[in-house]
What we know:
Chain A: Residues 88-473 form the FAD dependent oxidoreductase domain. Chain A is built from 15 helices and 19 strands. Chain A is an alpha/beta fold. The longest helix of chain B is centred in the C-terminal third of the chain and has 32 residues, at 240-271. The interface between A and B is large, with 61 and 52 residues.
Amino acid sequence: MRHLRRILPLFSNKYSIVSARSCQVRRYCDTSDKKKGDEFSLLKSNVNNKIEPNVLVPNPVERTLKSMGLMEKEEFDNIDPDIPRFCDVVIIGGGVVGSSVAYWLKESVPDGLEVVVVEKDLTYSKASTTLSVGGIRQQFSIPENIQMSLFGAEFLRNANRYLNCDDLLPPEIQFHPHGYLYLASEAGAEKLMENVTVQNDFGAKVALLTAGQLKSKFPWISTEGVACGAYGLENEGWFDPWSLLSALRRKNHYLGTEYVEGEVVGVEDLHLGVNYSGQEIMESRAPRDLRIRTKDGKVYPLRFAVAVICAGHASGEVAKMMGIGGGNGLFVVPVPVEPRKRYVYCVHSQDGPGLDCPLVVDPSGVYFRREGMAGHYLVGSSPEEHEEPPTDNLDVDDNFFQEKIWPKLAERVPSFNSLKVKSAWAGHYDYNTYDQNAILGPHPIHRNVFFATGFSGHGLQQAPAAGRAVAELIIHSRYQTLDLTRFRFERILYNDRLIETNIV
Amino acid sequence: MLMYKLMSEFHLEWGITLLTLNFSYFLFNSYQIKANWPLSYSTILVSLFVLLWLTFTTQSFILFYVFFECSLIPTIILILGWGYQPERLPASYYFLFYTLLSSLPLLFIIIAHTSIYSSSFLQFWGNFMDKMIFLLAILSFLVKLPVYFAHIWLPKAHVEAPVTGSMVLAAILLKLGGYGLYLVQVLNIYSETTLMGVCLMGGIFSCLICLRQSDVKSLIAYSSVAHMSFVILGMLMSCTYTNMSSILMMVSHGICSSGLFYLSYLFYARIWSRSFLLTRSMISLFPYLCFWWLSLSFLNMGLPPSLNFFSEMYFFIGAFSLDWMVVGLSGILCFLSSCYCIYLYSSTSHGESLYIFKLISMQLKGMYNRKSSSDSVTDFNFR
């Protein structure tokens, strides 16, 4: 009966479906700050609505003369470069996730949709993609994460088939399938074994090794304090993120996606109309116009039908521009993605583990992997919550290595007692402060805004699967291959965390 | 004199009827559509309608030609000034140059004819033995109609034009070509089988192209090509029935096509995409609007008792007595045109409901009763 009462308005003749929806939404919005009698203010404000010439259509006669070349040359120089004014899908953020969404969209429907990717820096000098360590693993505890990474590995292995352009050389992703080795102490051993069972159930190939087996397989490990380890036998390892990104971009250019270099500085809503049904008056707005600022400082508009936010660590800010976060009602919930700085150190050790070295993750959180064949290793660790470094720059803290990483590293691998730090860099995680898992799917109210962000360090390995998922949502309105419903934005509203235990 | 006789005998007020209908659409639009710079918009549209009125009512062929060409200018200003995308530039160039270059020979022929026969109205009494002159005389109208091989300007111009521009283009400017063909009275004399073949196959090809479009406006534009090739066919048959069919087809196409353009604009104004992938399942959002989509699609495909149906019937009645091959191929043409009409309606109105407009199901299930996110995934498979 209770459900009937809620569904009945939908079938009543008085309400159209759209207005019923707006009624339902309104019920959960905060109306306490509205004065009584204020409901008609929206109507009143629309009565004297003068149509102002907007930036999209300047004076038409001038515009005509300009386009026929009959006006002065100076006027022509003010016309924008190749920035499109209208598109079907705009992807904010051109890193690996954004390029992946563009790829899957264009691959399914080559000419059916106009896709534009807006990227702040097309050299990707500060992008998380290119600064990433480049690992891919299936050792997660959430089944969807496992499946996404499995597809990621399959994508990498078959990159020649997915990303080839007819006349050009096939892409080289340089996938090193040397596996991940998660070590667990006594305390974490049971959880590790549970996770391994789940992972193997879902198709990963992870072997559980005891301390003795670890010692015999990897003699350079010191198994002190290690109860067992999980070693990924297949589809795990590392690859070159820059190669994947360039291959995706090249394929996108081939398929007709347009990359625009500019920063999104604002999003304007389009006022669709006022629904007044019953006692509630709801204004329909939807984000429709992007404001892109190019390198020369000019701001250009771009009208879109669907927006996909893949802006990495800046996703929270971009969403704020759309009104998500800091508004009224459901808009008070922001996209909880913020940047977190992570350091990566490239060290050289003469007597290090050698070629048969997977990406080893110590129980303390320190990880390292081999880089190249000359005895270099990439080392890193996530700092404690209270020691998070400031994110306004990408400067590297050498003390972090000396104090936090080296001791634990030397404990685990004795030959790392003597090593030399060759170089170091820092990159940002798009850290999802809510539950460190991806946010995929549309916003509940602005349903033309999709998110593919918040991967918290797994963006690179989950990019192919996430891109495909978002493309399926846009084109087919439902997930067709992997069901990633649990990553939807609404889980934040439901106060429902997806806890992933295996984070690095 | 002959022109006046034609108008009274064959009731050529249909051109004026068309104009009036479209003008009433325009009046309706100007209230609904918020155009930028409304004063210039109205001025240009009014000037366009005045020119078109003059084209249809003038008694002199030279004046007809002059106004025929003059109607290009307001249309170009509409497309360039109020069109959306940068692609409107090549679109307008295609439109302008196709029309200008094809009508220049007609100017020479009029001048030659007037200087020889001292009458501005073209009378082909079979004196013109040269096929080339015959073709050149009607080339302008064929391009305007358009016939298949000279049709490239049409989808471009229609897609890039603003809504009123598209409506006027589809409803009236195309019919200028048909009106001109009728006036010139040439097709009755030369039974041109090549042109018949081009029209038939061209019509079938454009129907098939329609079925492959991903842009709603582009589909409606290509459907114009198919219908207008039907018009030329009717005139080529030189039979009263088929002449009637051409005229009826022009009138009914004017109504359907401009209506469809307006309806597609209504979707475009909400979703800001013309792609079929993003404008689908509109029946769940705009149920009463989809009634009009259905009606206009039915009218477009020739469902009785629409005008379109009568035009097709008249054509078959006339053509059956003349040529079986033509009947067969034009039957295929009619069938394929109903194919794309159904495709148009079902793609936009039905189909899987858009994620971007799905109902929010959490209100139905009760937001506060949820315990875990591992509950049923049927929420978002709600169609």
